Amino acid sequence: MKVPILRLRDILLTSIQVEMSDEDAVAFQTDLLRTLAKTEVKGIVIDITGLSVVDSFLARVVKETATMAQMLGAEVVLTGMRPEVAIVLTEMGRELLGVETALNLEQGFHKIQLLIEGRAR
Amino acid sequence: MAVSAIPLKTPADVVAARELARRMACELGFGLADQTRLATAVSEVARNAIQYAGGGMCTVLGQTGPDERVVVVRVEDDGPGIHNLEEILKMPSLSGRKLGSGLEIARRLVHDFQVHSEPGRTNIALMMRRRIV
Predict the structure, then answer these.
(1) pLDDT at B63
(2) Fewer CB within 10 Å, N side or C side of chain B?
(3) What total of structural domains would you count in chain B?
(4) For the complex shown, is ipTM > 0.85?
């Protein structure tokens, strides 16, 4: 399963639409970072509306991806987390995810632009 | 009573196992948060079976009693066993890639959690309950 990565000006937009296995998550991370390095964008928005489970492995991959992207000069915002996923992630330990989030794609888009501006200053 | 089982061999089987558990919880009328708690716990335990025991078996059982509904998910493997079980279940920390974090997370997400482990046989049971009103 390959997650499409779209470029919109200086942002990469990506939406995970199906459940991810550990292998899928690692492949997605590699693909995203390669695309980031190639396109030299300043931000990444990852929409997870399609994910009904974010377990400790996936949370860690997302957190690591955000850290790696920041090392490559880009900001990351996670959008579209389902309320029940937020509940369970909090019960598991909030520090598990540790990445900027926004309710939906529109708010995420706004937030990533603010983060990019903040970094440029 | 309804039972389904699935072998755990590949990462895709972990996804299948947690979906099986979620579907059973959904059919028995569990709310979205409880469905997600159970699915997440199954994911942690099933991954451990593959990672540390080379695979295993996941059985999902749904039951309706006179005043409650129950989903039990059993994950079994014939791996080396969890030798530091006590220590893992006492562990407050969630950080790191240690075996313990997944098991400890699973324990906190479900209503009842049982584990029996010895060399050659590990058996973990996760249970969610819902009172019928």
Answers:
(1) 95
(2) C
(3) 1
(4) yes
